[in-house]
Amino acid sequence: MASSAADAKVHQKAWLDSSIAEKYKRGENATKPFADVLVQKSGLTKSEAEAGNYVLDIAAGTGAVEAAIYSALPEEKWDTLKVLGTDISGPMLEYLKARAETEGWKGVETAIVDGHDIKLPPNTYTHIFVNFGIFMLPPTALPTCLSLLRPEGFIGITTWSDLPWIPLVARAIARLPTPRPYCPTAAEIETKIYNGRAWNTPAYVAAQLREAGFEKVQTQEEVRDVEVGTPEQFMLPMAMPLAMVSTWWAEAEREKVLGDVQREMLEVVREDVERGDGRMRFSGILGMGWKGV
């Protein structure tokens, strides 16, 4: 079993990698469709939505939430909106900042914020989004979000019902010569990704929002079939999950084994695409709540 020290070391190295944004951006094919639904549920797109909305995007990455917001809003309303995109990764935020400038998202600002120690002004934001990042944050994150929202403010979070790439990892490891590296089970991987919490169940998502103090809590499950692109493109956002899987392997051999698994996984994906299986089904859970008056 991987140690927490190994987890932290690999996690930090991956998020601070200068190429992480390029790798991660491709993953928006899977994450943005769920952000689109959250934005619609949030009320930001309603014609009567007030000017002065201030959005906080926690674990913003390359800007899937920002893309969802600005694609849903008429361009004449862009100047009435402020968005603060936060992340622990400087390279991610540099990418988001440049993207905002290119796209004309004038209201977007960025800030490095550690999700384990969120220090932002209370009663400030009208909307908070955490798109596929809540399971990486500590139990204190949702109560903190409640304190950051203005009265009647909205929170929207997303998490995965399952992880469809796990069987591909298992197939890749099975193709390696013996002695093969340890192949963690789906349950082990899910436990690590969700930090031992049941973030892959709607009931748990709803319970966490209610316990944090949110009202009118709702959850819904959504399924999207996503075009994975070329095998090489599919493998780009797999850098982070595979880095996490690598923590089960001895540090001395980790880099070599990771390279071997990446190579075999690429071949697995190529074979699937050649058979016409170039799409992947992603199942997500949306959790929504509002702060009281």
From TrEMBL:
Residues 55-153 form the Methyltransferase domain. The keyword RNA-binding does not apply. CDD domains: AdoMet_MTases (cd02440). Coiled coil: none annotated. GO terms for biological process: methylation. InterPro entries: Methyltransf_25 (IPR041698), SAM-dependent_MTases_sf (IPR029063). Keywords: Methyltransferase, Transferase. One of its GO terms (molecular function) is methyltransferase activity. This is S-adenosyl-L-methionine-dependent methyltransferase. The lineage of its organism: Eukaryota, Fungi, Dikarya, Ascomycota, Pezizomycotina.
